[in-house]
User: What shape does this take?
Amino acid sequence: MSMKKIILISLLLASSFIKAQEKTDTVKTYKPAVLPSGFTQKLDVVYTGGTDWNKKMDLYLPPASGKPSPVIINFHGGGWVSGVKENQSGGFKMYFQEGYAVANVEYRMTHEAKAPAAIEDARCALIYIIKNAKALNIDVNRIVVVGGSAGGHLAMMAGLLGDDHRFDGNCPGVNKIKVAAIIDKWGINDVWAWAYCCKSHSAQNWLDTKKKDEVYAKSVSPISYVTKKSPPIFIVHGDADSTVPHEQSVILHNKLVDLGVKTEFISVPGGGHGKFTKEQMAEVNKAIIQFIKSLDTFK
Assistant: This one.
């Protein structure tokens, strides 16, 4: 091998090492959840998987008592494209203060699997909690699913489907799937509308080969599953959201009201896509807890 080729290979190797090191150096670290006294955690619990993949959740459990605990199942946002469960870990203080357990869930991103994979995972997360409720000391009658943006979409799909098992192929065998409430934070309830009214590349990429199939897009949209028997839904959305139109939540709320479903809608003046003032966010969080406490099973 000539000296020139040796030098070239050395330079390429050095460049690759530097890039890899830069990537390693810039990996974001996340603050762990701060648990109240007596709480325990189970991190990276595998709740579903396939031949060459698995997905995990972090469980934060209150002290065991004679009474099973309510649980909040949380799904992060990111347009089904990005985001990790760890970036949510600092946001559960208000639930811990109420003595609620929390399940913080990861799911398959678009680069791993297209629609409806994320929905399948959301359903499996809910089913995992139901199947393991006794071991985790969780009250299956007090399950609340929560999410923002794409996470709001997944929380709605998980809860609204109930005993419709069309997306439960990876976690069959469980019936009586029911949540006490859904907390939808600036979520996507109509995937077709979001894909084309707003030219959302995230939605179109997630739909993949079915991005022109309106019937399919509607089948992965929460708005399609709202009935008079739907669980209570709390909705919050900034009226200046330029990512997911505020109108999506207006339409959802109106449909729930028309059907007589318990609902509350907070429209945040000037709020962006989950970007509110500190005072506005405090009010939203207070309203969420009040809504949960107003549920029959929480009284």
Notes: Residues 3-25 form the longest helix (23 residues). The first strand starts at residue 40 and ends at 49.
